[in-house]
């Protein structure tokens, strides 16, 4: 296979894109190629500069109404870095994260706000440094009253540019990072239905809250002051005594609560005759 040098590639690309219409197309192609090339020169993780959590909250909230929660969480961080840092972040199409809405195309799995913010964190932190930040963010999400008081205050004061005229919304604790559990639990507690204006505004505020929390954690880590507070629920720790990796049963490896879905884990169910 013949190897083509970068110099020859650029020369050939220019040579074959002469002429009016083809010349414009070729220059656009080269411009895009150079942007990608510049991005590739940045060693992962990419440079992070401290951001304003409240800017992240508002940007993520409003972005929800474009492509949903995953896009919102990602844009709340990377969109700000595009403005504050520029390259290489400007080479990223934020729309790539639109897949994650509703727990990935409506499948109700990982909350898109967590999905998008975790992706952003992983872009600016290596594997080791991202672990405590994402773990803390996930744990916070399961225990916090959401939407937050701050987001509700913004709603009351009309401070969201994408204002839907909704003031204070009911709060609840999801107990889970899963979209299905989080949204359904809130709807049941608040008395609203899936697809209602109130439910969509709730999720937009949660996306803003999640982006703001992620920025707070990243800023603290940047200053060398990151403190992790989340502790695994006792019920989960008890289950992992037998079911965790390298234990007697060894069929579970997770950190979220068990009893929301497995309130009677040792009883037989219709799909598995024997649970333990």
Tags for this entry?
276 residues; mainly alpha; 3 domains
Give an overview of the whole structure.
- With 276 residues, the chain is mainly α.
- The protein folds into three domains: 6-40; 53-222, no CATH class; 232-276, no CATH class.
- The chain has ten helices and no strands.
- The longest helix is centred in the last third of the chain and has 26 residues, at 197-222.
- The termini are far apart.
Q: Can you write the helix and strand succession as a string?
A: HHHHHHHHHH
| Radius of gyration, taken over Cα atoms and rounded to an integer in Å | 23 Å
Major β-sheet annotation:
none
The tally of beta strands, per DSSP, is: 0
**Amino- and carboxy-terminal Cα gap:** 56 Å
Based on Cα principal axes, name the global outline.
globular
Portion of residues within helices: 40-55%
Given as residue ranges, the uncertain stretches (5+ residues, pLDDT < 50) are 6-11, 13-27, 268-276
Q: What quaternary form is this?
A: single chain
Rounded mean pLDDT score: 84
The share of residues in extended strands comes to: under 5%
Number of domains: 3
Structural class: mainly alpha
Number of helical elements:
10
Brief overview:
This protein is mainly alpha-helical. The protein contains ten helices and no strands.
